[in-house]
Amino acid sequence: MAKTLFVYDKRGSLERMRANGRFDGVSDAVPRFRGWWRLGALAALALLLSVFNPSGGRDAEAAGAYVYEWRVTGGPGVTQLNNAEAYWLFSNNNDQYIKYGSRSNGINLVWSPYFPQRNVRFMRDPNSGNAGPLKYDEPLAMYVDGGGFVKHGSRSYGIDLVWSTTPSYEWRIKPQFANAGEAINPYHYWMGLFNTAKNASLHYGTRDYGINLDWRTDNILERLGEIWPVSRWPSTASCGENVKWIVEPVTLTGDTGSTVGGTLTPVYQSPDGEGNCVFIGAIGDLKIGIWRVDLVVNRVLRSSCTVTIGRYVNYVSVLNGVRGCAIETVH
Fold first, then answer.
1. CB 126: neighbour CB atoms within 10 A?
2. What is the pLDDT of residues 261-318, one digit of tens each?
3. Which of 74-78, 208-212, 222-226 has the lowest mean pLDDT?
């Protein structure tokens, strides 16, 4: 199941779903989203995995979304990362671990299909003022036992990584389903490794020379938008209303993606445990810009609003009979 889920993650859709995304704005009448997602997460996710594939089943690697592919872990029972402690660095892309190893070209890093000794350490800047376990998105240096600190640097062959005897705090561990600033939990989620000197994410990628690593600098999926309309109201006996959303473009500004919306039906509808019916839909690969979302219940227009969607997933809350939408963009 985990591997199947991550195929969708690499597509660039479900990789960005999480319980507590950044809340970007709301009309006065609409509450935040946190409650419905926690209550309906498992059921909704199972359905969405089976039905939501706006890219038509394109190859995950061709889609260019291998960003959250890393796991930094120390084994069972390790639920946080501590400063300068040794861990394993594992890629879900090729199911192998990174370790120091001699090679003819490129930085002396190799892949291992077996557990090496814990050999990768992340170290925070002592002047950062941060304390306790390492946090998502804080500046870190990366150290590999046997080689030294790993930093971006030019070389004739292989990926542009070099060794250094001094730390360079140019790495950020990016959260897949968590918030920046939260303590890193190595057993909950996959992670991204972002390098601020290169301004790109590190990922597995085949090459003629050196270790099979590459940079993700231009990801088409990060120039596309997705709308997940969400509607809720006090429940009836069965939550069986005929619910649809009509999504249409207004003013689009993106350079790629679909300019056509459509009529959506819920992929998830159920009571939420708090006396409300919850309806969730999904449409993806949209050109970013302004879109109109209409809520139609039992063939009657109940609410309409325009929303400006950006990259990634945009949860749009459209309530029955309430003007305006709330939008939460998850990065």
1. 10
2. 999 998 888 887 778 888 888 887 788 888 898 888 889 888 888 888 766 555 677 7
3. 222-226
Look at residues 40, 36, 47 and name the one whose alpha carbon lies nearest to residue 14: 47
The pLDDT value given to residue 84: 97
pLDDT band at 35 (very low <50, low <70, confident <90, very high): very low
* H or E segment to which residue 48 belongs: helix 34-51
Ordered by where they begin, the domains of the chain are 2-63+221-330 (2.60.40.1110), 70-216 (2.80.10.50)
**Which of 195, 244, 186, 185 has its CA nearest to residue 215?**
195
| Segments of 119-160 assigned E as strands | 120-124, 140-144, 148-152
- State both tokens at 50: 């089976």
For residue 30, CA distances in Å to 247, 293, 326 come to 19, 15, 6
pLDDT score, position 33: 35
How would you classify residue 155: left for phi > 0, otherwise alpha for psi between -120 and 50, otherwise beta? Answer: beta
How many of the other CB atoms lie within 10 Å of CB of 38?
12
Three-state DSSP class for residue 243: strand
303 φ, ψ (degrees, to nearest 5): -160, 150
Angle made by CA atoms 285, 289, 295, in degrees to the nearest 5:
80
Residue located via tokens 């970013």: 288
Q: Rounded to an integer, what distance in angstroms lies between the CA atom of residue 190 and that of residue 173?
A: 10
Phi, psi (deg, nearest 5) at residue 211: -60, 145
43: left (phi over 0), alpha (psi -120 to 50) or beta: alpha
Round the CA-based radius of gyration of the chain to a whole number and report it.
22
**Angle between helical axes of 34-51 and 2-11 (0-180°, round to 10):** 90
Distance CA 252, CA 89 (A): 40
